[in-house]
Structure formats: structure tokens, C-alpha cells
Design brief:
Radius of gyration: 21 Å
CATH architecture of the largest domain: Up-down Bundle
Distance between the termini: 39 Å
CATH topology of the largest domain: Butyryl-CoA Dehydrogenase, subunit A, domain 3
Mean pLDDT: 97
CATH class of the largest domain: Mainly Alpha
Order of helices and strands: HHHHHEEEEEEEEHEEHHHH
Strand content: 5-15%
Structural class: alpha+beta
Strand order of the largest sheet: 1-4-5-8
Number of strands: 10
Largest sheet: 4 strands, mixed
Length: 385
């Protein structure tokens, strides 16, 4: 289908696809096997100006929006979700600075981020604060001209590799969720260390580590916005990034579908290629339908966000939920179409299936997303009375 992309959007998509084909596909199996961070691919993305795709031109970026970022994420995910997670998490960590940073903070951090010189990570999740973000226990106490951070963050993508971290911590426990604030913490700050690199089922090319703050002192001016805005920062960030997670599901589904079609044309059973059998055709047809439906929804939501719309929680939750559910179903069915071969590491679909699972979990589980959608439906119904 024609999604009426501009010439520039087509160029971004084609460039991301070229990088995916030339750099990611040849390396993905080894990166997965070795649990290795894709530094060479990140360097290529930086040299191609893709790291600054979503950053305003005045800070050295290309000044593009959600749709362009989704196009890039989709193409990288088509090749490897581990790589696309590394890329997308950089945007996730940057959004708090982009949305709530002062001009001085933006000038300090965004040019290096846009150039790919410094990677970023977002620190919200803790051992007792996942779906319940209100359970955050990491604290930030103001002492003179410094905030002192204590606590840990868990399962942080780009942890240990990133140079810049946007962290949500509690500055006033008495206010509950309204007592959270957002900060920028730089790697190398005394009192800021990392746990072991997690050994994950999928997205193994990405780095996932615990962040440990032990009397970590940061300048007072490293706060984003003002005290008490932490959850506003977190929610706006996640509302803006979740469509990109849907694009990851779309991309990995597209990649798995293409592998399944290629295999079904070559694999012979009962004297015929298995693609000639109606049972296989129906599976491929359902996969194609779901992929196109997901693409239509995700591109539409991305355009809606780029229009400057404020009420994006519900549509972004829909894009994330549907796109990632499609990613899981299609990769699972791709393995089924390919049978025993699909289960073997010789073929990429077993990795795609492992990678797809996390998309239904991180940046808000799909069950939580359905809660978000349900609550918005209730509010809309109440307004119509």
C-alpha cells in the first residue's frame, strides 16, 4: 500500500533499510550469540545522521518527528530488534531533555546526542516499580547546591554503555507520585555505578543493566523542569515513545513474514512447494493482513502525534499494543510455517520470535496499555453525557 510518504521520509526509510541490510543482517546472529553491544552499527547510524533524526536542527539534529523515527525503527527491527532497541532507547532517554530541559541543558547535551557521540538511557523501572511506577524508592535529596541520589534502577536499556541518563527519583516522599522529580546524571559521576549485564532471552545485542546510586551527588541544575514533575516527565516521555515500540513489533513481523514466504516457496513436501498448500497460504494471508493493519495504525498515530495533538495516551497505547501483539503472533506463526527449520538457529525466525516477546512487556505491558485505553474510554463516555 502507498502511505503517501514524502520524498524525504522515503529517503529516511530507504537509508535505514540499507543500513539494516548491509550492517545489521550480517552481524545479527553473532551479536545475539555473544550478547554483544552493536557499537559498529551505532557508529554507522551516527555517520548517517540517524542518531539525530528526532532532535531539532538548532541542536544539530534533523528536526524530524515521530513518523520518521518510526520508519527508521521499523526498518532496523526488520533485521534485528536488539539493534533497534539500542537505537530507540537512545530516543527514549533523550525525550525528557527535549521536552523539559532548559535551553542551557539542551545546548549542553543535545548536540553530542545528535552526533552520536554520547548515548542516552532512561531510568524509571525498579525492582518494586514496574507497572506500578508509583512504587519508586530511589531518592534525590537537596543538600546545598547538589542533589544526592540513593537507590537502584533495574533492567535499564543502554545501561553501562550510555553516557547520559535521565532518572526519575523521589524528592518528597510525603507527596507520593507527585513527589517525584527528573534528573540528568552523567556516567562517571562518583557514586553512580552499574550492575552486571543481564543475560536475556532476546534482544541480546542490547545492553540491560542495573543502575546503582550510592550518595551520588549531581549539580542542582541537573533537574529537569522542577521538583514534583517527575511523573509528568515520565508519562509524556512514554506516551511519545510507545508508538516506536509498536513500530518495532511491525518491523520484526515484516522480517519474519518475508523469511516465512521465502522458505515456503523453497520447501518441498508431497512433490510441491508448501506455499501451494491452502493451510500455509491462509497463515501467510493472516500474517499479511495483520502487518498491514498494524502499519496503518502506527503511521496514523505517528502523524497524529506530529500534528501537535495533546491527547496521545490512548492512540499511542493502541499503537504499542496492537503493533507488538502482531509482532508476537507473526513471528510465532513464521516459526510454525517453517516447522523444524524455523526452530533452528540456522534461520533467523527463532531469534525474531525470542526478540518479539519483550515488546509486549517493556515501556508498559500490553495489559497496562489496555488499562490506559479502558480508562480513556470511560472518560470519553463521561464527557458525552
Amino acid at each position: 500500500m502507498d502511505y503517501f510518504l514524502t520524498e524525504e521520509q522515503q529517503m529516511i526509510r530507504d537509508l535505514a533499510r540499507q543500513i539494516a541490510e548491509e550492517k545489521v543482517v550480517p552481524a545479527r546472529a553473532e551479536l545475539d550469540e555473544k550478547n554483544e553491544y552493536p557499537w559498529e552499527i551505532i557508529k554507522t547510524l551516527a555517520q548517517s545522521d540517524m542518531m539525530g533524526l528526532f532532535i531539532p536542527e538548532e541542536y544539530g539534529g534533523l528536526g524530524k518527528g515521530c513518523l520518521e523515527l518510526c520508519l527508521a525503527v521499523e526498518e532496523l527491527s526488520r533485521a534485528c530488534v536488539g539493534v533497534s532497541t539500542t537505537y530507540a532507547a537512545n530516543a527514549l532517554g533523550t525525550y525528557p531533555i527535549l521536552f523539559f530541559g532548559t535551553d542551557e541543558q539542551k545546548k549542553k547535551y543535545l548536540p553530542d546526542i545528535a552526533a552520536g557521540k554520547r548515548l542516552v538511557a532512561f531510568g524509571l523501572t525498579e525492582a518494586n516499580a514496574g507497572s506500578d511506577a508509583g512504587g519508586i524508592q530511589t531518592t534525590a535529596k537537596l543538600e546545598g547546591n547538589e542533589y544526592v541520589l540513593n537507590g537502584t534502577k533495574q533492567w535499564i536499556t543502554n545501561g553501562g554503555e550510555a553516557e547520559i541518563y535521565t532518572i526519575i527519583a523521589i524528592t518528597d516522599k510525603s507527596k507520593g507520585p507527585r513527589g517525584a522529580s527528573a534528573f540528568v546524571v552523567e556516567k562517571g559521576t562518583p557514586g553512580f555505578t552499574f550492575g552486571k549485564k543481564e543475560n536475556k532471552m532476546g534482544i541480546r545485542a542490547s545492553s540491560t543493566r542495573e543502575l546503582i546510586f550510592d550518595n551520588c551527588r549531581i549539580p542542582k541544575e541537573n533537574i529537569l523542569g522542577r521538583e514534583g514533575m517527575g511523573f509528568i516527565v515520565a508519562m509524556k516521555t512514554l506516551d511519545s515513545s510507545r508508538t516506536g515500540v509498536g513500530a518495532q513489533g511491525l518491523g520484526v513481523a515484516q522480517g519474519a513474514f518475508e523469511e516465512a514466504v521465502k522458505f515456503a516457496r523453497q520447501r518441498q513436501q508431497f512433490g510441491h512447494p508448501i506455499i501451494s498448500f491452502q493451510a500455509v497460504q491462509h497463515m501467510l494471508a493472516d500474517m499479511a493482513i495483520e502487518i498491514e493493519a498494524a502499519r496503518s495504525l502506527i503511521y496514523s498515530v505517528a502523524r497524529y502525534i506530529d500534528s501537535g495533538a495533546k491527547d496521545i495516551s490512548k492512540p499511542s497505547a493502541m499503537a504499542k499494543t496492537f503493533g507488538t501483539d502482531v509482532g508476537m503472533r507473526v513471528t510465532t506463526n513464521a516459526v510454525q510455517v517453517m516447522g523444524g527449520s524455523g526452530y533452528m538457529k540456522e534461520y533467523p525466525v527463532e531469534k525474531m520470535m525470542r526478540d518479539a516477546k519483550i515488546l509486549q512487556i517493556y515501556e508498559g505491558t500490553n495489559q497496562i496499555q489496555r488499562n490506559v485505553i479502558g480508562q480513556e474510554i470511560i472518560k470519553e463516555a463521561a464527557r458525552k453525557k
